[in-house]
Amino acid sequence: MNTLDLVLIAIGCGVLAKMLARYAPNTVSTAGRAAQGVLGVYTGLLVHSVSFDALGSNWPIVIAIGIGTLAISVAGGALLGLHRNVSPLTGALSLVAGGAAGVVAIAKELGADDRIVAAVQYLRVALIMASMPIIVALFFHSTEDNAAHLSETYSLPWYYSVPVVALIVVVGTAAGRSVRLPGAGLLGPMAIAIVLDLTGIAGGLTVPMILVQAGIMLIGWQAGLEFTRESFQTMKRILPTVLGLIVVLNVPAAGFGVVLAKVAGLSMLDGYLATSPGGVYAVLATAVGTGSNVTFVMAAQVIRILLMLFAAPLVARVFLKIAARGEAPSSADERLVAVPA
Question: What pLDDT, in 10s, does the model give residues 103-112?
Fold first, then answer.
């Protein structure tokens, strides 16, 4: 069962639980913050599974393409925000091309409608994952199996990893809030995990997959729990626009892949996989199965995911400032301000 399956099941369970919402435990919000922290540590530790040396001198173009992808996805999201009952901020976060589970986890805290963000984000990932094998079969061919595969690394036992992960979540969240970092529950632990990993202090630290899956399930369940009749009507109304934007936004992403392939001397397939705006596990499976340059592709993908997650709060602040210029502070603004320091 992959990440997308878990989230869809969780959202469905949350919708059904809506009828029993008054019986939901008060600890759900606390567990939700813990889930954010677990996802933050897990994402931050992704850097240990890839070799950034594979980028060589091409890291500036990889980062530039990541920024370009962010700009295009946010612009498309702003167009989605032209729909009634969808704020520009909600639209922008809905189409941020990376770290879907992380974006959903902090969407409400940033002032967006996490129900719409969750539905659109996972629809985006599902379409990209479903179309990837078809695109590869139609437009590319497998290279010789000479790719450098990801090496196995030593991992600490779970009974060592779990307390350390819990400590990183607590310290990272507290530190993030002390500096008034939006999405502190996700980004604080992520930042600490990245530093520990890059400095080698993390050693064989990993997040047990059962914790990651539980965190994703809980975040999806919370989003589904908050769905209302109006939310369903909004999704029904914007669905054609969402589908169109997802398809359209994948065209420049493919163009970025062509540029990257030319600049870095890669195959067109490597360029396409390195710049795919979603479905990182499908990208990895495709790269391995086609004999692509796995290390380069995964390094580029991890950079994209980290860039999108760290940029999401900045995007939120920009949209809230723009909205505040022409109207009184909205409830979304009040939620952002009310985040405890």
Answer: 888 888 888 8
- In the chain, what is the straight-line distance between the N-terminal and C-terminal CA atoms, in Å? 37
Residue 91 · residue 317 · CB < 8 Å: no
Distance CA 98, CA 128 (A): 12
Q: Could you tell me where the DSSP H helices lie in the chain?
A: 3-17, 28-44, 59-80, 88-94, 100-110, 114-139, 158-178, 184-198, 209-225, 229-264, 268-274, 280-289, 294-326, 331-337
CB neighbour list of residue 191: distance below 8 Å, 6 or more residues apart: 44, 172, 176
| Structure letter (DSSP) for residue 55 | G
| Cα 67-295-59 angle, rounded to 5 deg | 35
**Of the candidates 119, 125, 76, which has an alpha carbon nearest to the alpha carbon of residue 234?**
119
Nearest residue to 297 (alpha-carbon basis) of 104, 143, 182: 143
Find the range with the poorest average confidence among 228-237, 255-264, 306-315: 228-237
Q: Tokens 């989003």 correspond to what residue?
A: 223
Neighbours of 196 (CB within 10 A): 20
The domain spans of the chain are 3-337
Q: What is the CA radius of gyration of the chain?
A: 20
CB 274 within 8 A of CB 68: no
pTM equals 0.74
